[in-house]
Amino acid sequence: MIFDAHAHYDDERFDPDRDELLSGMPESGVGRIVMPGTSMDGQRRVLEIASGVPFIYAAAGIHPNCGVNPGDLDRLENYLQNAAREKIVAVGECGLDYYPAQGFAQPAREAQREAFDSQISLARRYGLPVIVHDRDAHRDCFDILSAHRGVRAVLHCFSGDAELAREAARLGFYVSFSGSVT
Ligand SMILES: [Zn+2]
C-alpha cells in the first residue's frame, strides 16, 4: 500500500474531477493520503475534503510563502484543539522558503522564522508531528527545529546534501526524497 504523505488535492486544478480521482485511489494502490494545509484561508477546504474521504487525513498549517496574517495562529490553534474531530494528524506545511519568489510578495525571512518557530511550538503543545517545507534555508531550518527538543518532523521534498540528511536522521526526522533528487 502506498501512503502518500503530501498531496494538495484541494488545488483548484482538481476541481473538474476530484471525486472521481480520489475514489480511484485505493484500486491504484494508494491507501492513505495526508493533505497539508498552506494557509488559514484555505484550511477549511482541506478539512472538508478530508472529512468526506475515509482514507484522507489533513495537516493544518501555514506555508512560508503564504505569510501569517493577524489572528492566523489563533485560528490554527483552534483547529489543533479539534484535531481528532477534524482528522488533523500533523502541523504543516510550515518552514522556510528563501528561494526568490516570482510573481508574489514573499514574507521577510525574519517573519518566516517566527512563523515556523510558533508553529513548531503549537505542534509540540498538541503532540503532533511537523511537515516541514525547507527551500534554500537548510541551516536556519535545522537551527529552529533542533531548538525544539523532541519535535517529530518529516522534511518534505528534501533538497539538502548527504551530511544534512544524516543530521536529520540523527534528530529522528523522516526525509522525503522527491523530484528534487533529479
Ligand atoms: Zn506541499
Under the CATH scheme, which architecture would be assigned? Alpha-Beta Barrel
| Count of discrete domains | 1
Number of strands: 7
The CATH superfamily bears the name: Metal-dependent hydrolases
Largest sheet geometry: 7 strands, parallel
What is the helix tally?
Answer: 7
Round the mean pLDDT to the nearest integer and report it.
96
Q: What small molecules accompany the polymer chains?
A: zinc ion
Q: Spatial order of the strands in the main sheet?
A: 1-2-3-4-5-6-7
Radius of gyration: 16 Å
Ends: how far apart?
24 Å
Structural class: alpha/beta
Assess the beta-strand content as a share of residues.
15-25%
The helicity comes to 25-40%
CATH fold node name: TIM Barrel
Identify the CATH class: Alpha Beta
Order of helices and strands: EHEHEHHEHEHEHE
Residue runs with pLDDT of under 50 for 5 or more positions: none
Q: Which word captures the global form?
A: globular
Provide an overview of this structure.
The structure is a single chain. The protein has 182 residues and is α/β, with parallel strands linked by helices. The protein has helices at residues 18-23, 40-52, 72-81, 83-86, 109-125, 138-146, 162-170, and strands spanning 2-4, 30-35, 56-60, 88-97, 130-135, 153-156, 174-175. The protein contains 7 helices and 7 strands. The chain has a 7-stranded parallel sheet with strand order 1-2-3-4-5-6-7. Helix 5 links the parallel strand 4 (88-97) and strand 5 (130-135). Helix 5 packs parallel to helix 6 (138-146). Zinc ion binds at residues 6, 8, 36, 93.
